[in-house]
Amino acid sequence: MEKVTVDTMVGVLDKRMHRQLKQYLDICARCAICKDACHQYVGTGDFKYLPARRAELIRQVYKKYFTKTGQFVPALYEARDPDDNLLQELYESTYGCTGCRRCMYFCPFSIDTAWIAAVAKGMLIAAGHGNEMLGQLADAAIFKGDSPEMFHDVLVEGFKGIEAELRDETGDDTIEVPVDVKGAEMLYVGLAGSHTIKPAARIFHAAGQSWTLSLYEAANYGLFFGDGEKAKKIAKRFIDEAVELGVKEVVITECGHAYRVAKIFYESWAGEKLPFKVSHILDVIDRFMAEGRLELKPGAIAEPITYHDPCQVGRNGGLYEAPRRIVTAIAADFRDLTPNRAEQWCCGGGGGLVALTDMNDMRLKSGAKKVEQIRATGATVIASPCENCRLQMEDLVNEYDLDLKVMAVMDLVVEAMD
Amino acid sequence: MSDAPNVDLELDLKGLLCPMPMVKVSQSIKDVPVGGIIRAVATDAGAMADIPAWAKSTGHEVVSALKEGSEFVFLVKRVK
Fold it and tell me: What is the ipTM for the molecules in this complex?
């Protein structure tokens, strides 16, 4: 590997080095508790997916360049220079990580391997080895934000088409998919396509909520790619839109990482306090129910149903109870997964993996724990408020021959409204 | 004589949700020669913005993007 590449990678590590990262890199006791916490290691048995190993690759470079012992006696202290082998293993282990942070939850020192993986992605990108597909998806999203004049009309036309379909489907000519409404109370940020827009429109309509639909999708491939600047630019599209429209609340659809970006990351990235509240759509539905604005038929979902906490909504977003209140209100037979909430197993689809076809084999193997959990409940429906989780679980249904319907919570709510 | 360009590869993207239509086009662009055309048919309305945005940001060209009933039909040219 050329010296300039080594210097660049070490420079990124230096730039991202702070007390917390230094602590993560200094204190691993190699107890290997994380091996039993990681769905990928449990599902594949492949050493490169062991959380401690993912961190160890960065730790070895850290020792070489940031510790005296590693500088002077590298062989004794397992310090090393970045090389092509390290680069390849780093690529597979970090872009393979879903960032679920279950390993952190069980680590006695709370080492955040997903954080270390994010730093590793920054080093890979600087060395010209970032994931090409995730980079392209991020760039396309940024391009849309930079060229609103090119996409505004085609997007609005598409939304009006969705509105027309919705009116046909419901027989209600007053239902709307409003766009660009200044002074609306809420800006709803969906995903591309109609599947996250139609149910939300019906729910807002039923609750009499003032809202407007974002021109932009919530998904953020900049985060998965590992480029903080790109991730910020992608989120900034709807943040600026919300400021421009003067809304009081930004509501993120059933998308795990998008919720975490908007709710948890954005203010620190931007270094400013947002002038509106950020909520997950399930928090809003729960609120509508509590305020008596949404009438749902108890027991409307007759089949045995379970609920999967998406890692970015649950363990990393803190939203556990609102989704359960919604699902239990409309289910005749709710059966929670075991374990659940903060100890929930990752389904294996996060981190952008569902878009990375070269990692399909590992991704499907890594879903084995989720399949085991679902089978143990006997449920025939699973609800989950994250697109990546749902795409993964649909693939698991085919791979493991499950008798299971994968649903968004909003779609179940709409069923219980009818 | 028709002015319609010759299609080198047909992609059926019906039923795929975002970002998969864009992902499939991106993966398949390498399967046609430079100057070659992919005809992609999607049903996700988001593709109407996503595929042109992908093409612009990667230096390829969307020759046409049309809504035909409930389907979205793209002709994408590999430029480089």
Answer: 0.93
